[in-house]
Amino acid sequence: MKIYDCFTFFNELEILELRLASLYDVVDRFVIVEADKTHANVPKPFNFYAHIHDYDKYLPKISYLMDTSVVEYKGVGDWSIENNQRNSIAKGLADAEPDDLIMISDVDEIPDPKIIQTIRESFTDVNKRIDLVAFYDTAPYTRGILIPFHCGIPIARFLDLSPISFHLQSYLYYFDWRSDLPCEGTSLCKFKHLDSPQGLRDVRKGLPRVINGGWHFSYMGGVERIIEKMQAAVEDVELFHENKKYLDKAFVEAAMASGKYFHTPAKFEPCDVNEIKLPTLKNFLKKYPHFVRG
User: Fold this and answer.
1) C-alpha dist (Å) from residue 14 to 45, 59, 104, 225, 287
2) C-alpha radius of gyration, the chain, whole number
3) Ramachandran region of residue 237, left (φ > 0), alpha (ψ -120 to 50) or beta?
4) 44 by DSSP, 3-state: which?
5) Helix (H) or strand (E) holding 256
6) Which of 114, 127, 225, 268 is the most buried (most CB within 10 A)?
């Protein structure tokens, strides 16, 4: 059994480095798909390819796919380009076997490597089990309701019944701005149950979840990187296009200083970065100190 960690990539070079370092020992293959255009249909360079030698030590496990698909784009709010990019992950799964595990994420949604290791061990050890939760989202940008249930069979067998998703802790702008809002980022299933990467992504909110399953590090890298992502993304892009204040440098700087998530009522609070139990994080923050507020 092999584990494939599959995700789309835009320009999150540092977060990619953290992901590769954190998961390298627990996955067998990384499948990275980068497109030649943003999700808003603006041409872009292949950023990973331009910096590929920065990742030399991880390359033995990387399958890098350069997506040059011609996709009909219908204008602001059209998800076609993003969905096509994610579905291109399937091209990197040609050697996958039926019981191999496929994880589908955005690059900034990093599952806990300890949980991935437990899932791997459950294929040979029936005592390796993970308790799951069901999630009911009462309204957008609320905590929702978590309903724990005990998984009475090894997770390897449970995955024959259902895919799972990972309930992630959210961080915004910096590693020391935390929110208690839910993020149902990474999804996982056996290859034999994968209809399409985007299909698995679409159903993640309704799947049984691994509680405390990892971390979501969103809109990081500084003001210019954040604005670039806002211009490129589909989510909330209508709002960003209609109200240019959200793309103003001063507005973004104020949001970063206050912990406010743009136009939403979501609020992020200061936290200690040591609560993030990623073994590679300490060295990462030494190399990239601007990822904490200081």
Assistant:
1) 17, 16, 19, 11, 10
2) 19
3) alpha
4) coil
5) helix 249-258
6) 268
Residue 199: partners with Cβ closer than 8 Å, 6 or more residues away:
none
Q: Which of 32-41, 47-56, 121-130, 139-148 has the largest mean confidence? A: 47-56
286-291: which pairs have CB atoms within 8 A and are 24 or more residues apart?
288/14, 290/222, 291/14, 291/174, 291/175, 291/220, 291/221
Checking DSSP bridges between strand 177-183 and strand 269-270, what pairing results, if any?
antiparallel
3-class secondary structure, 239: helix
The label of the residue with tokens 């204008």 reads 75
| CA separation for the pair 17, 284 (Å, rounded) | 8
Q: How far apart are CA 89 and CA 197, in angstroms?
A: 7
C-alpha to C-alpha distances, 166 to 76, 191, 196, 220, 286, nearest whole angstrom? 30, 17, 18, 21, 28
| Domain extent at residue 275 | 3-291
**pLDDT exceeds cutoff 60 at 115:** yes
- Looking at every residue in the chain, the average pLDDT score rounds to 88
Q: Length of the chain, please?
A: 294
Q: Enumerate residues 6+ apart whose C-beta is below 8 A from 248.
A: none
260: CATH? 3.90.550
- Asked whether the beta carbons of 12 and 38 are under 8 A apart, the reply is no
**pLDDT tens track for 141-197:** 445 555 555 566 778 888 998 999 999 999 999 999 998 776 888 999 999 999 999
- pTM for this predicted structure: 0.91
User: Over the range 215-251, which residues count as b (16 or more CB within 10 Å of their CB) and which as e?
Assistant: bbbbbbbeeebbbbbbbbbbeebeebbeeeebeeeeb
